[in-house]
From TrEMBL:
Residues 430-503 form the AMP-binding enzyme C-terminal domain. Belongs to the ATP-dependent AMP-binding enzyme family. It comes from Longispora fulva. This is Acyl-CoA synthetase (AMP-forming)/AMP-acid ligase II. Keywords: ATP-binding, Ligase, Nucleotide-binding. Residues 24-379 form the AMP-dependent synthetase/ligase domain. InterPro entries: AMP-bd_C, AMP-bd_C_sf, AMP-binding_CS, AMP-dep_synth/lig_dom, ANL_N_sf. Pfam families: AMP-binding, AMP-binding_C. The keyword Transcription regulation does not apply. GO terms for molecular function: ATP binding; CoA-ligase activity.
Length: 515
């Protein structure tokens, strides 16, 4: 059974990504497009479009064009979309990199992609320079000034006619975004111009920007959530992006207040801050109209607390690097635990994890997604691509869930993260939701730990907001779940290890347990 949403399908423009994103730049020429949180550096839409054209010409002067790869190793800064879209206009591909990655990881990713140019910030120039001896990087460009690197402003100064290479939107890869690697070695997700346009377009349809929208750019642009749902979708609708180098609670809250932010894209850990931190009461957040959570499952109780405390709409969507913007909550308030209904153009089916048989409503199985936003494939990994992409275009997500009678999708867990206790499947996400409702729990992660008698035992790592005991928390869970789902061990911890978009790093916790 194939599930579709209630909204009609929409045509995907047959154009390049940058042409789509800047389609209203002339209309909004005087409006601020991107600005640093300090207010000291920014670009209007007219300046942004001109800077992209000039930079594309500067890249062409360096011999950069179709088939070439430019890498960006930087936090969120106003010039990030200029570098990204200039490379796209020149006909190249952009690989976005995480500044927190080790030099070894970055070298591997750069060699896999064959990147020739690397754009970075002054704080990362030393790391970038060291990478030139281990990769194909020919030149380092820096936002600002730094010894040993070419200033990005040198490209901005090129006023020749920008390049106009032929683009096949359905085939030409414009972005390489690496998967989180939570289940193995990170893989380069190949996203075409059409994929990226569909992602931005669908975001605008399910979560349209209001007039005068001001977005605080907290999720990193090097992640699919920040790149597609936030950066490109916001710019395509004429919003103002206020960029932050890194998340710090008080700086974040002050930015919302001082810049009169109207929309937030956040991860669940920030939702917990907004729901429970006493810091929130020190700042005026009344400008907020909407909050969209992504990257990991948002606890319904936390969402309710945020909604009641701030008086604004909060929702969550569902997607993954390979297929961002697949489902989105539309109702206010949304159905607890749901990630919403299909976005336009998106099809879904649920299959039995053992037999592959298609399932009906209210039956848990693996979630498969099909639509114009689904990736072209994994870079240099044909076998891995075949494992997740069916010949008919459906993508295996690796997530377990079901569609209910109202067409809403509920995520149960990652298939590979299910705990096998005495032959029964136990969901870490379910147990985490139960524990997060306890007043003494600030954050939690649950994993399975090896046990000779039962196979695996559910163990909780807990960040406590008040003094507690393992016995208290285990009893609390036992009263609310089936006997086989009970938490059997509790370890208190200062901080739950998470990726930049809030996903729990369960491998780190498993390694901690095995030592």
């Amino acid at each position: 059974m194939i599930f579709t949403g209630s909204r009609p399908s929409v045509p995907i423009p047959e154009t390049s990504l940058t042409s789509f994103v800047l389609s209203r730049a002339e209309e909004y020429a005087a409006r601020l497009a991107t600005v640093d949180v300090t207010g000291g550096n920014g670009y209007t839409y007219g300046q942004l479009a001109a800077a992209i054209r000039h930079t594309a010409s500067g890249l062409r002067a360096r011999g950069f064009g179709k088939g070439d790869v430019l890498a960006i190793l930087a936090p969120n800064v106003p010039e990030y979309p200029i570098a990204f879209h200039a490379a796209a206009v020149a006909g190249g591909t952009v690989v976005v990199l995480n500044p927190l990655d080790t030099a070894d990881d970055l070298a591997t990713l750069l060699n896999d992609t064959g990147a020739r140019l690397l754009v970075t910030v002054p704080a990362e120039v030393a790391k970038a320079t060291a990478l030139t001896t281990r990769t194909k990087i020919e030149e380092i460009l820096v936002f600002g000034e730094a010894d040993g690197a070419t200033s990005f402003s040198a490209l901005l100064a090129d006023d020749r006619t920008p390049p106009d290479p032929p683009i096949d939107p359905a085939r030409d890869v414009v972005a390489l975004v690496h998967s989180s690697g939570s289940t193995g070695h990170p893989k380069g997700v190949m996203l075409t111009h059409r994929n990226m346009i569909a992602k931005a377009l669908l975001t605008g349809l399910v979560a349209p920007n209001g007039e005068g929208e001001r977005v605080l750019a907290v999720p990193p642009f090097h992640h699919a959530f920040g790149l597609t749902m936030m950066m490109n979708a916001s710019l395509s609708q004429g919003a103002t992006l206020v960029t932050m180098l890194r998340f710090e609670p008080e700086a974040f809250l002050k930015a919302v207040q001082d810049h009169r932010i109207t929309r937030l894209y956040i991860v669940p850990t920030i939702a917990v801050l907004l729901a429970r931190s006493p810091l929130v009461d020190r700042y005026d957040l009344s400008s907020l109209r909407s909050i969209i959570s992504g990257g990991a499952t948002l606890d319904p109780e936390i969402a309710r607390q945020v909604r009641e405390r701030l008086g604004c709409h909060i929702s969550q969507g569902y997607g993954l690097t390979e297929a961002m913007v697949s489902f989105m909550q539309l109702e206010d308030p949304p159905t607890p635990g749901s990630v919403g209904r299909n976005a336009p153009n998106v099809e879904c089916k649920i299959i039995d994890v053992t037999t592959g048989e298609e399932l009906g409503r209210n039956q848990d199985g693996e979630i498969l997604i099909r639509g114009p936003h689904v990736m072209k494939g994994y870079l240099n990994a044909e076998e891995a691509t075949r494992k997740v992409l069916e010949p008919d275009g459906f993508l295996h997500t690796g997530d377990l869930g079901h569609v209910d009678d109202d067409g809403e999708l509920f995520i149960v867990d990652r298939i590979k993260e299910l705990i096998k206790y005495n032959g029964q499947q136990v969901s870490p996400v379910e147990l985490e939701a139960v524990l997060m409702a306890h007043p003494k729990v600030a954050d939690v992660a649950v994993i399975g730990v090896p046990d000779e008698a039962t196979g695996e035992l559910p163990k909780a790592f807990v960040v406590a907001s008040e003094p507690s005991t393992p016995e208290e928390l285990m009893a609390y869970v036992a009263e609310r779940v089936a006997p086989y789902k009970k938490i059997r061990r509790v370890e208190f911890i200062d901080q739950i290890p998470r990726t930049p978009v809030g996903k729990i790093e369960r491998r780190t916790l498993k390694e901690r347990t095995s030592k």
